Each structure stands twice: as C-alpha cells, then as structure tokens.
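Annex B. Sample input.
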Amino acid sequence: MVYLFEKFPHCIEMPPMPVDFDRGLWIENYGVFAVLSEEGVVRRSDVLRLAPAEGLMALLDSEEVDGVGYVSLSPVLEVMHQAFGLCPPQVHEPPPDAGLEPEDKLHLNEAEMAGAPRGSRQQASRLAGIPWVTRVENIRFLNTARSFVKVSGVSDRAEFRVVHSDGDMGLEFRLRTTCATDGQRQWCLDQLRDAVG
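Annex B, continued. Sample output.
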C-alpha cells in the first residue's frame, strides 16, 4: 500500500497494518451498505430514509453539489462491506468427542514433572478430562506468575497451549484436540480461557 501524505513530493510505502471491522455495524446497516455499494453515490436524503444507525453518516464520504448533499462509502467501508459479504459468520460449536480415556491422553515428560509448579499434575489431569482433547504434553517451563491460554506458536487449528502457574513459575502444556474448523477452534479457545483464566 502506498500513501501520499499532504505535501510530500513522493508516495511513501506503508507496511501492512492490522484492521478490524465492526461486523455489528455492518449487520445493523446492511441496507445502507448495499445501496451505497451498488449505486456508488446517493443523495444524502435518500440514505437518511433508510434509517442508518447513529454515527454512520459521519463515517460516509460526503459532498455537496449545487446545494444537494450526496454520500458514498469510503474505500475502507467498501472493503468492509465486500469482506463481510464474502465471509459468512462463523458458527461457534463444540468439536466432536475424542472418545479417549483421560489417562490415554496424558503424555507427560515425568523427568520434568518433578520440578513443575505446584498443581501442574492436577491441571494436566483436568485438561485430559476435557472430551475434545486428544493429547496433553508438558513442553517447557516459563517464568510467569499467571496462568493463561495462548495460540501463538501453535502449528495448526487443532492445537492449543495452556500455561499453568503456581504464582512463581509456569509450565506450558501442548493440547491436541479434535478441532477441525475455525468455529470449533474459537469455541474451544473460549472454553479454555474460562477454565484457566
């Protein structure tokens, strides 16, 4: 992406930046987005008849020609409309049961468990008792005073990391699950955060 900033003589290149769109705003104002995307430029009074949510009009590109107000989607709002139109909402649902006994899911490095934070073995057993978990492994110690769930450093959507801490030191567990979709992954992530956090 390139950007021409005010009076700069040349375009500057912008690095990729994270953008998050408000799906609720889009759903609530779908009719407005659809009309503006299809028509391009519409009289302001016609858009107001569609009863846009409070604040939406301020986000639209606006222009007055011969005393008549016109509005259109800004490029960002057009991208938002197109993106949400292509991606149906995810269904957050539980993944299937693994069909394994908890003891068959535990694959702990016992040599390291001797120096693990207090409660680590109990946490591993709790995690192995979750129906959609297929494997629990201890992978490393961390210098942390809090317990949490993380998804960074994972290899695929069926994997999660859970850090158990006794307030002084942490132990990171790798969980393998039956997650097969992004919706199942999000459901599991919410469940794990509720259980651990």
